[in-house]
TrEMBL record:
Protein's name according to its UniProt entry: Oxidoreductase
Domain GFO/IDH/MocA-like oxidoreductase residues, every copy: 132-258
GO MF assignments: nucleotide binding
InterPro entries cross-referenced by the UniProt entry: Gfo/Idh/MocA-like_OxRdtase_N (IPR000683), Gfo/Idh/MocA_Oxidoreductase (IPR052515), GFO_IDH_MocA-like_dom (IPR055170), NAD(P)-bd_dom_sf (IPR036291)
Domain Gfo/Idh/MocA-like oxidoreductase N-terminal: from-to ranges: 4-124
Gene3D superfamilies with a match to the protein in the record: Dihydrodipicolinate Reductase, domain 2, NAD(P)-binding Rossmann-like Domain
Length: 323
């Protein structure tokens, strides 16, 4: 392949700005078709984004000879089936996070990619963003000395602003999402932890429903011991008051600490002095990752996030929620 010609399965809200337009802005990449079960909405998306083709049937998009790579942006319930269907058609897949509903399904997807020898990437796109790459650089440079522990807090009131709004609010239906807002947000954070600190030795957690009339856990607490001795502790709660909302990750070392949010643009490094790094907001948050995926599909780079790497995150979420 000399050019990646993308087809999107599930051209919903998440693709409007975060990812969709970036496929036409990356070198050697073009968005040629989109699919949504509601044909009227698919046609509208195609018209607004100048996409040549639209479908209301995923199989038709997958088998379109002009499409040579698939981006799956449906809710997690459909990720496994569409991924395996596309892989069987010989088309590399870029699938949204969370990779799927649980670790067992993620394992099947990874196994299928390996058995069929077709490329699979997972959209843990913070790995490619300048701010989070800077954190990795600071850690590698031993800026805060030997890392001891990590404390993460994601505290939000019900219906937080940082969640992409959808008409049916599928994220709080565990049959579709896998487990509520924790399953929507935690993949970003847990993937970064394994990206920064490597292999997991063991993990455990607790999860509970504290609000009435909810089908999903709204409070999750989890701990990880990494093979290198770093200890992680995270708390996710989606029922606090607005004034108590928090989004913070603090990495403590023998010489100081690094703090940064998951949804923000500033890193603060505190040792014997304090230094701040400010980053410009990205118009399309997935564009740096899509650049790396395109290079990988064209055999010009490594896989920026493999099924095996994303499977680790799925296992951690299962460990924390005791699935």
């Amino acid at each position: 392949m000399e050019e990646i010609r993308w087809g999107i399965i599930g051209c919903g809200d998440v693709t409007e700005v975060k990812s969709g337009p970036a496929f036409n802005k990356v070198a050697n990449s073009k968005l040629v078709a989109v699919m949504r079960r509601d044909g009227t909405k698919a046609a509208d998306y195609a018209k607004r984004h100048q996409v040549p083709k639209w479908y209301n049937d995923a199989a038709q998009l997958i088998n379109d000879p002009e499409v040579n790579a698939i981006y799956i942006a449906t809710p997690p319930l459909q990720h496994e089936a569409y991924t395996i269907e596309a892989l069987k058609a010989g088309k590399p897949v870029y699938v949204e996070k969370p990779m799927t509903l649980d670790a067992e399904a993620a394992q099947r997807m990874t196994d299928a990619a390996n058995q069929l020898k077709v490329k699979l990437c997972v959209a843990h796109y913070r790995r490619a963003q300048p701010m989070f790459l800077k954190v990795k650089e600071l850690l590698a440079a031993n800026t805060i000395g030997d890392v001891r522990l990590v404390r993460l807090k994601m505290l939000q009131s019900p219906n937080p602003a940082l969640i992409t709004k959808t008409a049916d609010n599928w994220r709080i239906n565990p049959a579709i999402s896998g487990g509520g807002l924790f399953h929507d947000l935690a993949p970003h954070q847990l993937d970064l932890m394994t990206y920064y600190f490597g292999a997991v030795k063991n993990a455990m957690g607790i999860a509970t429903k504290q609000q009435e009339n909810t089908k999903v856990d709204d409070l999750v607490a989890g701990n990880i011991l990494f093979e290198n001795g770093v200890v992680f502790s995270g708390t996710w709660c989606f029922s606090v008051s607005p004034q108590d909302q928090a989004d913070s990750c603090v990495v403590y070392g023998s010489k100081g600490h690094i703090s940064f949010p998951m949804f923000g643009n500033k890193i603060t490094v505190t040792t014997d002095q304090t230094e701040e790094f400010i980053f410009e907001s990205l118009q399309h948050v997935q564009q740096p990752m899509i650049e790396k995926v395109v290079d990988y599909f064209l055999n010009k780079g490594e896989n920026p996030c493999s099924g095996e790497e994303a499977l680790i995150t799925m296992k951690l979420m299962d460990d924390f929620t005791r699935k």
